[in-house]
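Hi L.,

You mentioned the student needs an example of a multi-chain input paired with its predicted structure. This one should do, with 320 residues in total across all chains.
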Amino acid sequence: MDNKEHIQAETNYIFNYNFSDNDIPEKVEEEYYDRASALLDEYSWNDIFNCWFDYLKANCNTPEEVINWANLFYWYGGFEKPIPDPYEFLGYLYFKVDVAKYVDVAQTVFDGIAIGILEKIGKVSLIDNPNYAPENDPEIIAAVERWKNR
Amino acid sequence: MGSGGSGPYSGTGGGSQEHADTYHVVNKEMAKDKKDPDIYDPKTGYFRNPTATKIQDAAQGNAIYLDGNKPNGPITYVLDKNDNIIIGKRKNPNDSSKRSPHPTLIGGKDPQVQCAGMITFKNGKIYSYDNSSGHFRPNSKSLPKVKAALDKLYKENPNLFDKGSEWRKK
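Structure written out for the whole complex:
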């Protein structure tokens, strides 16, 4: 198995997890988390991110599936990594999920992904803009429109 | 938001307040909030965030639960005058397109805190904390008080902290 195949196999495994199931035994939780951490340690983030994003686009169609993917992406640490085209990525998430309709289950994690990524590149500061809401960000809105028009 | 406590934030606007035992809401933010009925009522002040809870009361087993779920993302917190860490979701119950600012974790006309910022949770476990509050702008010298409160929680149950947090990272 070459690197790309291994990244794909691990991605398929770690994203096949129901994040909202609170009855998953802690040992199983840890196993998924550790496997994701091992993947991040072993391969380049660019290769991993491309695989994760492709997985999202290919396998997650409903808002619920996208929210589940987003929760895993966050939990596994994706929000701390540099994203090659952050607005394209964030725009895709907000294109697939109308966060206003899924506030209770999506707002916190979507905020976390957007703020985590954009703070790192100096585009957002919760100190300068404490009321920042990504779904109202003109650059994210523009990216959503681009996805709608594809 | 790293895996531990953050030093002075690097905002592009005004800086933090001078170090003090407690902080009031900065004038600029209070003035804005007073114009927004979804955040501030002229008679009662800041509404109380309905998800606001003491962090130790939110612990169930080896995870924190907030509003019925294990938080996964940045959650607002304040350290109140009694050394309690109060956490709450940013969700604004009055308008879902807005957010609930830090003062709503206490509520009232002139809420005061020892520190405030964001605690990052990963699947119900504490990952990191900082002093990112545009409303209170607490000095980074107040962060050790937050660390002390979290250290106390760690002693009670280390499993409330993520493996990648400063408390558990090898």
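You could point out the following to them. Chain A has one domain: 3-148. Chain A has seven helices and no strands.

Best wishes,
N.
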